[in-house]
Queue: 2 jobs
Job 1
Amino acid sequence: MAKRVSATNVTAYYGGFKAIENINLTVEPKTVTALIGPSGCGKSTFLRSINRMHEVLPGARVEGSLTIDDQDIYDRDVDVTAVRRTIGMVFQRPNPFPTMSIFENVVAGLKLNGVRKKSILEDAAEKALRAANLWGEVKDRLGKPGAGLSGGQQQRLCIARTIAVEPQVVLMDEPCSALDPISTLAIEDLMFQLKDKFTIIIVTHNMQQAARVSDRTAFFSIEKTGDPGRLIEYDNTQKIFSNPSVKKTEDYITGRFG
Amino acid sequence: MTTTATSHRTRPPAQPDSLRAKRLPWYAAPAIAVVALALSAVIVYGAGVGGPVLVVVLGAILYLVGLFTAANAVEGRRSARNRTWSALIHSAFVLAVLPLVSVVWTLVSKGASRLDANFFQTSMNNIGARDANGGAYHAIVGTLEQVGIATLITVPLGVLCAIYIVEYGRGKFAFAIRFFVDVMTGIPSIVSGLFVLAFWVLIVSPWFNDGRPSFSGFAAALALSVLMLPTIVRSTEEMLRLVPAPLREGAYALGVPKWKTILRVVLPTALPGIVTGVMLAIARAAGETAPVLLVAGGGAAINTNPFENNQSSLSLFVYQQAGDASKYAPARAWTAALTLVALVLILTIAAKLLARRNRLSR
């Protein structure tokens, strides 16, 4: 199921502004990769270019090549919706659909893509909610609005919604930044379990979180405001946090920079 | 002592010794109001310069002054300002509601005399100047049909146009559409009536009518559509813009195509606001007289076919009855006006209930 993500010379623009430049990086299947770095260094931009969400913004475009198991997702004949079904995404702020119930939120991806059969939807919903560690909390109120859950539950609902369409890669853009420590822990535990099935790439500002959950860590940085973000160092998490090979990485991790 | 007092003004206020402060008793404000009104009455009638309206106005001013003085003396300056502004804001609210209440009261009191079964069952056909009965059945039918057809035309068109502007439109073309929708908002209703008269009644309708131009309810509906369209486009546009971008992105990230995201996520989220905009447009259209007069012509008889011959409408009925010489006509005009307001009110409430029918908000 899980797939390898490989970026070669990826450069992304917002109109005339170059946000990231020449990113080269390969993410192995069934691993958790953390993207860290100061604000504005292009972590999120890179993450969003992996499932072609970057181009949703007016004037935004991506150059270079991004492959999923040797298939370039920026090829001309690639269907964007198929890419996004293969590469799911969880956002910084929980964004359940306000007009839908918990159940409808979880199966939204399936239902809106044409799955009608109720038994399939119910099975998928239970499976996804169990996988997101939310089943026990919501199984008695699946018909209630998804927006009525707490922030941490909403975020797990969004994760359930994402994995219900059975993607191969899951991107997470600071999924815990709006959550309290307990909900954060629940989601970190979840990432450990999801690693068995999915390739996970997570953007985080929380160094401890990166150290706790990830196998590999990529450090992004910028020279100064207005410069494009670059990949400074990419290595095993343990190596990055104990003995980084670039001085800049060490400065950032130890808090002497940024 | 003097030094501390002056230094208090220049520096930020020091921490108060106590969190408690003196308050005016609860009866102070009503008492001041009564005294102010009494004083004002004495002054006005004493001087013999005006009536009850002047008493209330002068009383309100005296009340504000008295309230400020009393609060200033007991509670301090900040609290006095707070009380004065609260009172001013409440008076502004009363002033805004007063005309509304007055209109409703006038309509109900004057319209009640002809609010009988006969009014809703008969038309003005063969009703002479000396006949006390006669009704607005034909006008109600006309209003419902014309506004209904106009709604059927404008809602899909307006909502789709707004979707184009918000979700798809980029560059000069979308800008031009927005600009012309804005311009259309300012079109006087008589102009839209003239447009339909020149275009539909005089040029197109002869094709369907053996070469003779014909008034029709449908022409009125077209004229009303011209008026409703910009309102619906603009209000829908604003509502669609209020739908948070993360919701759209959340759907895109699930691999949902754009059109389906708009249909199943964006529109349902914006629905209550869109319904409100549509109801405003309907209320405006139902009250238009001039275009109906120009292109549907009005008429005294019941005509349920909107595509042929003259049709009346409630607002046109009001206009005609109000200008009629018969002594029975004014009562009919008032009742028709009351009916029109009630009709719009009922439609609005029904639409709001339908939009809220979403079982999630129950």
Note: Chain A touches chain B at residues 51, 53, 56, 58, 81-86, 88-89, 91, 93, 95-101, 108-109, 112-113, 143-145, 158, 161-162, 165 (CB under 8 Å).
Job 2
Amino acid sequence: MRIVLDRPRCEGHGLCEEAAPRLMHLDDEGVLVLDREEVGEADAATADAAVRVCPVAALRLV
Amino acid sequence: MTTPPVSDVDLFADEVVLDPYPVYAKLRELGSVVRLPRNGVYALTRYDAVRGALADWESFSSASIGFNPAVNEALTGTSLASDPPVHTRLRATLTENLSPRALRGLKGRIEAKADALVAELAARGSFEAIDALARAFPLEVVADLIGFTGHARENMLRWGQAAMQVIGPMNRRTVESLPIAGELYGWCSEVTAADLAEGSVGRAIFDAEARGDIPPRTAGHIIHQYLGAGVDTTMAAIGNVVALLGAHPDQLALVREDPALVPAAFNEVLRYWAPVHAWGRRATRDVVVDGAVVPAGAQIAVLFGAGNRDPRHYADPDSFLVGRNPADHLSFGYGPHGCAGQGLARLEAHAVIGALARHVERLVVGPEVRVPGNITRSIERLPVLEVIPV
């Protein structure tokens, strides 16, 4: 599966980074960087947690 | 498919707004959506129904976020009350100076302020937590940030409270608050850059308007939303922080032992006591919620606090447990209209919780005093009878 970011919606709240620090991080400017977009079974639960906690629904899994 | 169950509950009765949790439990057991004829609304009660509706702006329009026509009329054209695609542009303007990105530089200053204030209160040995902390701190932070001075600074508290109150139905509380909300509206329609402190975010918004980055006469609208939406709710949340950490010394001890739990503690405070009781939407079509049909045009009441205590989503929902870190709580809403000021609210509340954990071993709190309110559920007075210092 793949993590998709709706960039205009992202406001940099950073809750996804706390939930999935190995998959994404906020850079020095506070802009979200997806370190891995394609995720396998091993990371599915973590990716799902990151998607769930985004307060503005800017992330989804496809 | 079925018709939603019906309840004779009055969501805005004094006894309900003072302690809505027994009513939330009753409604939640009836169904995910319950029709309340006394309020003319369909209430969303269970976690999945609340979150689902907040995400689905196409079925649940924000054109009717308030529970009386006058307030919905007054809010027309704001990001709060609009739907995409118009909303997307208005929201971007509103959050440009309010997103965590924009606020990063403020963190140290807000933490230092909270630390100094909490240290001073703790040294007194006893204090009244609402005026001295829950109100004083956000008022100072927001006034400094937006640049409120003089007349506006003096009126922030009553203006902010009234702006939330009038979102309720046209009951006595709304009627009494309308003139005060009108004062805020009037001030915001006449405010100019010169009325706001130099270097403030308020000034920056007027600069953006002068440059043509945002449409003419929108700066006042934005200032109105910062004050109307951001003051009363944050004060409620910080009052709840003190009350809940005071009432649950074992939970404060957990945060003291592991300060990394500060964000989790704030999430749990917000989950446990939602600062906002009810918020409106309008069904744009017949919508099926958990098997029941909500008819097109229906006024919806989103009950964040009911969803936050749904045992289908949170185990042991009526216990206050910071370790559960309920980051997906509903108290900031969710989705395109998720609280635009939540980044600032987190900065403020994390700073206060962190300062309490550093300076206080335990707080002995007296009984809290509450006053009925239509929308914001907050504590009016909270005596801290004794501070057991670190």
Note: The radius of gyration of chain A is 10 Å.
